[in-house]
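ok trying this again, last paste got cut off
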Amino acid sequence: MADNKKKALLLTALAGFLWGTSFPAIKIGLHYMDAYTFAFLRFLVAASIMFFVLLLTGNFTLKFSKKRLLLFLGISNGVAYLLQYIGMVFTTASKSSLFVNLSAVWVALISPIVLKEHLGGKKIVGVTVSLIGVVLMTTNLDFSSLNQGTIMGDLLVIGAGVLWALFIVYNKPLLKDNQNLVQSMTWLLIFTLLPLIPTAAFSVSTFASLPLDAWTAIFYTAIFCWVIPYYLWLKGLRHISATTSSVVLLTEIIVAVAIATLALGEVLTVISGVGALFIIIAILIVS
């Protein structure tokens, strides 16, 4: 049991690491296309790869269990991306990062209700410490940015964070009864495309003219920032609680900041470093 938990924590941290590497790839991709086109193509490629794997393994079928749950998870994921992208037009980047990463708090509040998970003292302390770390890393204690942007933009990004919290919580029932992960992932990714199709329809004519760098970013984020980490995360979620998983996934922020510092030349401040330390402490607490 203890070995399963250690393996689950490692898989979750690795998933967070891979998701954290998406930020430089996204920055590259956004030089060549708008965010809506990028999101659509990213999930189109991811869904196509999973569909191909499903065919190769002989697991493709239109009859599968938990259809409503997969539809809910897929649409929630797609809508969350739309809310984040639209919200970021009307609010600041720092506020967006803060509000989206509040998902750990929402998960801690939702999971005892939906999953009947016990929220013990360690988890409460871990979530609190992680929240302090997120605030330090996203604001750098410069709270003037929190006064910028519009209330509507803030609400849209907060809505994205809540949807991703629901996504984390409701993935837990998906793992019951030894579900076929490849099949579940494939249908979830197909359903994720549904809310993204209307926005992508306006830019379909530009798909063929995208340069190699753009397609490299699309394929990298599809494979290494969705297919692989999502599979690893699901494997880990089998043996740890949704709350623990959401805190461990905050390794994504640390990796993103580290890459931005080393590869993109952004400056790592002492406050951000302290914030990263708080997140690491939070992960150790919930682990």
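PB: full thing came through this time. The chain has one domain: 2-286.
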